[in-house]
Amino acid sequence: MIKLKSTLLGLFVCAVFSVSSHAQTQNQINDKFRQLNEYLPTANSYRTASGAPGYAYWQQRADYKIDVTLDDDKQTITGKATIKYYNNSPDPLKYIWMQMDQNRFDPKTSMDKKSETMPKTTKGMTMESFRKYVDERTFDGGFKVTSLTDSNGSDLKNVVVGSMMRIDLPEPLAAGAITEFNISWWYNIPDAKKYKLSRQGYEFFPRDENRIYEIAQWYPRVTAYSDYEGWHNKEYQGSGEFTLEFGDYDVAITAPSDHIVAATGELQNSADVLTQDQRDRLIEARTASVPVFIVTPKEAVENEKSHSTQMKTWRFKADNVRDFAFASSRKFIWDAMGYYMSENGETVMAMSFYPMAGEPLWSDISTHAVRHTLNVYNKYALTYPYPVAISVNGPIGGMEYPMISFNGARPTTHEDGTRTYSRRTKHGLIGVIIHEVGHNYYPMIINSDERQWTWMDEGMNTFVQNLAHQEWKDDYPLGRIDPRNITGYMTSTNQVPIMSNAESVIQKGNNAYAKPATAFNILRESIMGHELFDFAFREYAQRWKFKRPTPADFFRTMEDASGVDLDWFWRGWFYTTDHVDISLDNVRHFTIDTKDPEIEEAFKRKQEMEKRTHPSYFSNDDLPKRVDEFPGIKDFYNDHDEFTVTNKQRNEYNKLIAELEPWQIDMLKDDSNIYLLDFTNIGGLLMPLYLEIVYTDGSIEEKRYPAEIWKQDYNQVTKMIVTDKEIASVVLDPKYETADTDMFNNFFPRRILESRFDLVKEKANQARDMLKENQEKPKSLDDYKKEKQKEDDKNKKLSEENFKKLLDEYK
Amino acid sequence: MITLCVAGNGHAHRFYASFTQIELQPTKGTIEVIHRIFTHDIEDLLMRYRGSDGELSDEVIESFLKDYIVQAFAIYSPDGNMIPLNWIAVEVTLDNIFVYQEAPLQEGQETLIIADRILQDLFDDQSNTVNLKLDGKVKSHTFQKDSKMYQISFNGRTGDYPFEN
């Protein structure tokens, strides 16, 4: 056994050193490294323990053939659908459940409205809120089903349960069988601005009396039926999004003849609805390197004025999609640019639809952002499988559907008709378009259950969105995936785990977007590395594209494909509300006890002398000493201190050396510095230890230890570092990689840390130079008025010029 | 000149949530307050109070927030006296606006009564989480619309304020 001697003053410790730390039995009941088996469902033939679809994996399918009419005068949707339902499950089905999500707006049956609560302490509400409350309860929303028949035209019995409807089949639908039924319905389209809707609705423009319609959740959809939940019967309450089946869509949209329609899918009858010019431009756009106008701003402004009473029918086909949405308006400018994908030789049409109010921003940004999204997501997930990808500007702030997304940001329109926008608006628009187009991958193709798990689509998508930001320009702010930004939320005692139902999540932005996205970023940058993470994350996409993954399938695939055991990570980050706070308590310095009395006794003497710091050890040195006056009383002990080496010690040492092997003698002669670093886990969430060690010679070394360092004791670990250099200081997590919530205890020796608060305060103080402020020449009110007038005139002229320039550009 | 958007919704999804971190710093003798609010929510709020016209520069946002935050957020000593918060700064980023405030910390003070109505005049669903931190310990509370004031204490009672008994 090697003994260590502490070099710390006053601490003459001969620490017996053993490499393993102590296992503490009380921790075993909370084993943070045990596998997640009791949380994850048992693997079966549908879903394997490796996280892949099993050999017997199945999912249902529904094909829709729909005729729909948009009535611009009454703001209604009237539809007639033939739905072909494929029972691919091994189970006979006596009935089919439908999702009637528009019923959320039917005040009589809406669970969303019925489950609304008020705080106990309510004393009143704003006029505006109260009006919204009343309006929501008088608005005649929800599907009105006018007929429901089987393929023979016979009525089908049905029961409506809130936002769901059960269709009773005359005969059970056998496993592997197909049935067809017809349904007709209509509903009033809600005013998206009035009801502050975030998924669908219309926007009214009083100046030209036109509307932009963004239409979604507009037809009765077949409820998902899965191997792990049967019918996914969970009411639509607004927050949890959608759980859907794939199928082929053939949709004929009849709208006023001067409307431009954008939809999920590929336009089938451009000759009926577009001019020859517009069709030529579409062909040109396919290979263009910049967006090409299909409907120019000038044509859009003309369309706004016409208010035609004629109707036109646009036919769209979309294969293998889980939903269908569309937008329609007279106000749309339309631009497009092809994106040739070298992965499969296909060209996707990246397209944007927006009113003049979106200019001058939209024509510059939107289609580029769509194309950029496909480029980046293709790398991290899968090759985009659809023919079009669309971004529409209207009333909805940001909402995703297959191939089409609704994005709200637009410039400010001033009273003089000019429009300006800020850097923030521009970045906001880029961000929202990447996010919503990115949802094509998560969850439109990798079809996770949004109504149960918000993080599976929002968390993963926010993560890849941020990777796409990094590829837009160099200094794009990290925002939601910077571990530093999540620390405040993670220390909060008022949280729910990420693995909570979508409706029950509180602080959704942090819980379902930022925290999982940050977790993925930490896995990629710090714990797994780009290569392992990217491979596994892409493998998940490849395995589950056009299928329905559950959280377990994701957790298992990430481990299966990377070879990294991450159960501890999922447990801590996804199943608990623990936070990261690891403290570097102490750095203790030792050298090896050589056993050689000549060296060791000298070392002890030096230590003892160094202890003698008190002034009284020295202040009396000059006084005459008795032993000098009477030398006769001196003996051996006066000439030899207690650290003098005796012959007995020398003999013992020689005997020891004689018995040792040569390698053991070498070990005793090792003059390395040995450091013991003590860490305490205060926050509870286990993370790796990343250290930056600065040596006294000025050199810097980085050391990275895996989270498994905590495997036997979650509360305290000690790590040994052996080096021939001397350590000056150690920093734990110097790059802020682990979301450590308290950095003060990460430094040895401790240092005064500038918090975010201090930094801002300093900046704010610097910003104000009172001396300089006082040196300003005093001005009168009149001076200011004159200046303001001058400034206003200048701005007015500038905006007029800009607007003219803009118009000229479009001519 | 920096000009600014507002019309339309700038953000992907609305969260109706703000987050406030209050740190009691006995060594510095200060109470530090950082509010984190979604930028777009503040733009909405400004639209409502100032009308739809005009440009929202960072300066406009700061001068508005100086008035607004005083009405919407306050802390009190257990004796019921309001603790005036000094305005330190505002940081406007793409996603978030950070508001920094500060007050002197009385020796031994481990209790605060908090009122937080940020954005609750605009959104009925607005919920504001406050973390109070002292020596690495954190206690949190989430304010909903019409929530009472809330006392957080590290050496006494924590709960809705005034206490019912």
Mean pLDDT of chain B: 82
Which percent bin holds the helix content of chain B? 10-25%
Tell how many strands the DSSP assignment of chain A holds: 34
- The CATH superfamily name of the largest domain in chain A is tricorn interacting facor f3 domain
- N/C terminus separation of chain B: 57 Å
Radius of gyration of chain A, in Å, reads 36 Å
- What oligomerization state is this entry in? heterodimer
Topology of chain B as a string of helices (H) and strands (E): EEHHEEEEEEEE
CATH architecture of the largest domain in chain A: Sandwich
CATH architecture of chain B: 2-Layer Sandwich
Helix/sheet category of chain B: alpha+beta
Number of domains of chain A: 2
Explained architecture:
- Chain A is an alpha+beta fold and 811 residues long.
- The termini of chain A are far apart.
- Chain A has two domains: 1-30 and 580-753, no CATH class; 61-452, tricorn interacting facor f3 domain (Immunoglobulin-like), CATH 2.60.40.
- Chain A contains 23 helices and 34 strands.
- Chain B has 165 residues and is an alpha+beta fold.
- The longest helix of chain B has 15 residues, at 58-72.
- Chain B starts with 16 loop residues before the first strand and ends with a strand.
- The model of chain B is unreliable at 1-12 (pLDDT under 50).
